[in-house]
Write a structure and sequence with these properties.
Layout lengths: L2 H41 L4 H31 L4 H9 L22 H21 L10 H32 L4
Length: 180
Amino acid sequence: MSTTKVKGLLSQLRDAANAIKAQIHEADAQIASLEEQRRALTDAPVSKADLAEYVHADIQRRASNYEWSLAKWAKGGNFPVSFLELERNHTAKKQQPFPYWDGIPHHDVDSMTPQGMYWLLGELLAERFLIALDKLGYEEGLVPVADRRLQIAEIDAKLKEISAKRDGLAEDLISSGMYE
């Protein structure tokens, strides 16, 4: 094989390697752009309506054990409370044996557990919290959470596709011996 042919083949290989490198750089630029779009979606504040949904869900989670505690109290033989016990406490102006705050009977101590507070007062707490946040103001035109989730899923799918293509190109280039 002549030197000219070898040089020509090597030139073609370098050109092909450079073309693959350009495709890899283009994929890297697309990945960076998509990651920036994703970051903008995840870092941006949510609308007041979406925030209200998060607040209500959080309060429900925090209150979730209260009903279980109350059911456990009732199964412990404390419910239903007899007329005699209720009447004695009422006449003596004593507290009734109801675990209003925590679902656990305390005969001498009124204590409130967080789950009791959230269960009993959660809606009022959410309403007042959101009223207080009104004073901070909200941007208009924020992307709704449902739309963000869809957009993020689309971006993640594109990132996966482009990254796989990019990694394949890089493996091909490295295995050719033209680039390390």
